[in-house]
Amino acid sequence: MTLQQLKYADAVAAYGSVSEAARRVFVTQPTLTESIRMLEEELRIAIFTRSTRGVTLTREGEEFLASARQILDDAARIQEKYTGKAVRRPQFAVSCQHYAFAVEAFMEVVKENSSDSYDFTLRETVTSEIIDDVARHRSEIGLLYLSRRNERAITKILRKEELRFDELFTSRPHVFLGRRHPLAKRKGGIPPKDLDAYPFISFEQGIENALYFAEEVMPSIDRKKNIRVRDRATMTNLILGLNGYTIASGALSRELNGPDIVAVPLKMDDLIRVGMISRAGLPLSSAGEAFAAAIRERCRGYANPGR
Questions:
Q1: Counting CB atoms within 10 angstroms of each CB, which of 7, 44, 103, 155 has the fewest?
Q2: Which residues 6+ apart lie within 8 Å of 177 measured at CB?
Q3: At what angle are helices 3-15 and 29-43 packed, to 10 degrees?
Q4: Element at 30 (helix H, strand E)
Q5: Going from the N-terminus, what domains does the chain have, and what CATH number goes with each?
């Protein structure tokens, strides 16, 4: 196995086409095809499946490529250190629930990246896709929460997928609502029954709509008026425009949530444990380490409020 073979496999995965990958790495298509074949034969796995629509990674191929890209990144850093030339764009992806502090940490990583070029991805998506993205190596890190309602089911899934959960902070549930909402000044907390008159805005979870995948610790099944959305901006607009509300951890960003959204404690006997998920036994890349450090720093002020 050679670095060149790893580069070829990385290119095929990135472009989804042997012919396009060959063009990008400046070799003939037969040369690249034969190199991949020899690599698969040596490793005794199928890295790709071939069809008339192109090539896609197998499950074993996803695991192989995650390790291969780390080797390529390490080799690129060594070359850059001693030659002064960047030979590979840093790559990093994170999938998360709709957390403003995750966006802030991601921005820090981008700003502090010293490379002239990079390929970073931030996916705000549904809970099931966060787990699948990290399990399938589409994202290096995922962000989600555990609570009394979902912990048993989510932990079972994480264990099955060989993912680990690293807690960032624990919080009491909070109600996010507009500053002018009739309940906004209830500093002592809001009982769930007092919210019945107002629309509950929650994040839609697609086809995987099981209760334990809900992004809100108090799911919509408990509420009389429900509106489901997909993005944070729409949720904010509906909270303000309809005197609606959502349930979250209390980690509020004035810059991203806006000055008109406030967090009031919810009188509910539960805790929200927000954390990162990643592949067990697989070290983070340099960008992954930078993101983990940035988000831990961001979350330090949210640690254990209300416990």
A1: 44
A2: 183, 184, 198, 239, 243, 244, 245, 261, 262, 264
A3: 110
A4: helix 29-43
A5: 3-64 (1.10.10.10), 91-169+273-302 (3.40.190.10), 171-272 (3.40.190.10)
Contact 247, 104 (CB under 8 A): no
Residue 307's pLDDT band, with cuts at 50, 70 and 90, is very low
In contact, 276 and 142? CB cutoff 8 Å: yes
pLDDT computed for residue 57 by the predictor: 87
What average pLDDT does the structure give for the chain?
Answer: 88
DSSP character at residue 279? E
Model-level pTM greater than 0.85?
no
Q: What is the pLDDT of residues 198-257, one digit of tens each?
A: 999 999 887 766 678 888 887 666 788 999 998 888 999 999 999 999 998 888 776 666
CA Rg, the chain, in Å?
A: 22
Q: Which residue's entry shows tokens 């962000």? A: 143
